[in-house]
Amino acid sequence: MSVTQQISDFVTKTQIGEIPARHIAKLSLLDWAAVTVAGKNEPLTKIVRELAAEECGAKQAYAVGIETFIPARMAALVNGTTSHVLDYDDTHFAYVGHPSVAVFPAVLAIADKIGSDINSTIDAALIGLETATRVGIWLGRLHYRRGFHITATAGTFGAAAGCAKLLGLTEDQTHMALSLAASKASGIKEQFGTMGKPFHAGMAASSGVETCLLAQKGFVAGINAFDGVQGFGVTHASEENAEAFQNLGSKWIFEDVSHKFHACCHGTHAMLEALELITGESSFDLSHVQSIEVKTHPQYLNVCNIQSPVSGLEAKFSYRLLAALGLSDIDTASPNSFTDDICKAPELVALRDITHVVTDESLSESRAIVKVTLAGGNKLEASYDLLDLKTPKERETKVRAKARSLLGGEKEKELWNTINHDKRVDSKYSVTQALLA
User: What CA–CA distance (Å, rounded) separates 136 from 157?
Assistant: First the structure.
């Protein structure tokens, strides 16, 4: 059975009950909504909103920051871009991709268009989130290291799968949507540190909506466009990991997703957590720091290792400057910390310039080791692995606390209640509007 057929079967035949992965999906929806609302006034978001407002069109779905409803495809583009603009959304280290920013905006746009309820929306999103994760594993590290932004590529297939589930597409229609997605999936890592990276998430979400609406109308695509001899896998450096789709439908890999608690590239978070361990256990004068060594997996050298960032956005992708922020007790959990000014602050630049990033192939991609050398030769060292996951309850506590810090206590409580509501959202609101307005 082809990969496309396996995914189509999963989308059309899987029924979701109250499984642990569904609770994690709810947390990711809360997290996604919080970072989307928090990012609605960023310059990139305003640019994409202006484009949407100029095009206008059918009033189908809600986009954050726009008063009138807009076409579902464009709403997915706006909401997807906005949700990734702060780079504060969840990451799955099984494929080093961000699943929520591609899948939720797409499925929510369809939910608005057809008038879906919150439960059906979450179920369909979980199908998409699992698909994005599995496709990401199938594509593998080679795909990512060749320069493809796997959040966007794998995310396009996840977005299509989630939309197909919510629309109730037939198996053949779902197959066509996924095959067409192979022509739409794109994104390159050269855009990291620019507006291009978050725009990729919007592209993936929008493409998921588009391919499913076309398939619903009878669009026919190549049957082997995903895994054929000239298909997406071959042309986009897939490792074609045969184990990626084992137990699909019975085991939910998505539930191991990692939520962010620092408003910067997830590849730097293990380092920041290790620095918190060091500063929490030892007291020292920053003027006594002689050197900082960050040991990480080599794949991050072309992801988040900008040597001398000049903007707040570039700072999110700089091990050296982020190490300086972490050691200086600057709140990296706050998006407001990432300004252009921090890139030229003398005390931070001084720490940045004595920070050295070294690599170790034997380290997992979720782990980092930090060593701080003080005057006199005293060395402080700590290690942290992001895959040391908290219990579901502990994770809920941390995700909700993050949402409260971004939205305020009342808004977070209202949002969490909406996500856990077992009935249709108040009829005067669409599902997306209830989450983001």
Answer: 9
- Residue 288: closest CA among 349, 332, 354, 345: 354
Report the alpha-carbon distance of residue 151 to residue 3 in Å, rounded: 19
Q: Which of helix, strand or coil describes residue 170?
A: coil
Rounded to whole angstroms, how far apart are CA atoms 314 and 321?
A: 10
Q: Which residues contact 250 (CB under 8 A, 6 or more apart)?
A: none
Q: Which of 299, 300, 204, 261 is nearest to 89 (CA)?
A: 261
In the 8-state DSSP scheme, what is residue 387?
T
Per-residue model confidence as pLDDT tens digits over 144-194: 999 999 999 999 999 999 999 999 999 999 999 999 999 999 999 999 889
Supply the Cα-derived Rg of the chain in whole angstroms: 21
pTM, two decimal places: 0.89
Residue with tokens 């539930």: 255
Contact 262, 369 (CB under 8 A): no
CB 127 within 8 A of CB 104: no
Residue 200 and residue 34: Cα distance in Å, rounded? Answer: 19
> Which H helix or E strand runs over 103?
helix 100-114
Beta-bridged to residue 291, according to DSSP, are: 373
